[in-house]
């Protein structure tokens, strides 16, 4: 499913927040993708990126008395600058179709949420299982001079 949020440049730490969970759930991280888009078949890239989508798990806020409180954050996600590259190859039977897959045939995406980025458009999917990679979890600290994000100490 295509996401409506704009995918930031790879140098940007994270995107604007995304509300709502992924609707595409994969049971296994060993995946390949097939795309049918006439606009890319004639000028196909060598590689496409799969970006990590991290859950914002909790937020630390400070009261006027300077006491800190940590609250869980519900259903808020963001596209990270962490990514995996997939190689692009034409599908022999149909030149308007392209296949995207990892270079290493043994590679499996760790459990978590991702966005396949194709021509600036993000296509959302989730690999089922417990989150073990720190890149998939963020904590927000809300300070007087803005909000700051860091990877969770324990996903």
Give a verbal description of the structure.
The chain is mainly beta and 155 residues long. 3% of the residues lie in helices and 52% in strands. The protein has one helix at residues 38-41; strands at 18-19, 25-26, 33-36, 47-62, 68-72, 76-91, 94-101, 112-118, 121-127, 137-143, 146-151. Strands 1, 2, 3, 4, 5, 6, 7, 8, 9, 10 and 11 form an 11-stranded mixed β-sheet that branches. The longest helix is centred in the N-terminal third of the chain and has 4 residues, at 38-41.
Overall radius of gyration: 18 Å
The N- to C-terminal Cα distance equals 25 Å
**Helix-strand pattern, N to C?**
EEEHEEEEEEEE
**Oligomer description:** single chain
The tally of helices reads 1
Helix content: under 10%
Low-confidence stretches: none
Label the overall shape.
Answer: elongated
Q: How is the biggest beta sheet arranged?
A: 11 strands, mixed
Number of strands: 11
What is the mean predicted local confidence, pLDDT?
A: 89
Strand content: over 45%
